[in-house]
Amino acid sequence: MLLDRYEPLFFNSNFKEAADGAWAAYRGELIVTEGEIADDQGRRKPPVELMRQAIALADGDNLKFISGSFDELQYFPAFMNKFGADIKADTLVILFVVNIDKPFIADVNGSKAVFIPLVQGMTWNELGDLAALEKNDFKGQSAAEKVITMYNALKGNKYKYAESTVEVELTKTNNAKRENHGAI
């Protein structure tokens, strides 16, 4: 199964869970660029680049849905090196990026990937808003079933954002930083 192959790239995992036969879902963070090897035993330093608040859904060996947040659009090429081979025309890709000003759609291996600026907020909550889902829509579902529900609600969406390429958008990034708020 596809998510089993990704397991070495899981970081701060919330869950990896199977549902409804061949479906499997993951939530947590995904390592985009590993940290360098720290000692003779092969242990690594912390990852250099992460996809934060990542959500992945696979049907057997087919990646159906991937979403998460990047601090910088500049992480996207490294992301493609790790996960790009599994992104196909029917893969739903929705990425939230801190250092872009405007949302855009880009062709990624035949998939219409959606890039949305997000300096503050949670990927899951933003996806719920895009899908017009509420807490009651997930009532009684397992963690993996909730991801499937989110995917089914989002896969028919038509996004009215400008079409561009990642290469063009990389020339337009800003210096925004993720805003985290918590207890003082």
Protein described:
The chain has five helices and eight strands. The protein is an alpha/beta fold and 184 residues long. The protein has one domain (2-33, 44-170). The protein has an eight-stranded mixed beta sheet.
How would you sum up this structure in a few lines?
By secondary structure, this protein is an alpha/beta fold.
Largest sheet features: 8 strands, mixed
The amount of beta strand, in percent, is: 25-35%
| Outline | globular
The overall average pLDDT, rounded, is 92
Strand order of the largest sheet: 1-2-3-4-5-7-6-8
Number of helices: 5
Number of separate strands: 8
Radius of gyration: 16 Å
Which structural class is indicated by helix and strand composition? alpha/beta
Number of domains: 1
Low-confidence stretches: none
For the terminal residues, how far apart are their CA atoms?
43 Å
The residue fraction in helices comes out at: 10-25%
Q: Could you state the order of secondary-structure elements as H and E?
A: HEEEEHEEEHHEH
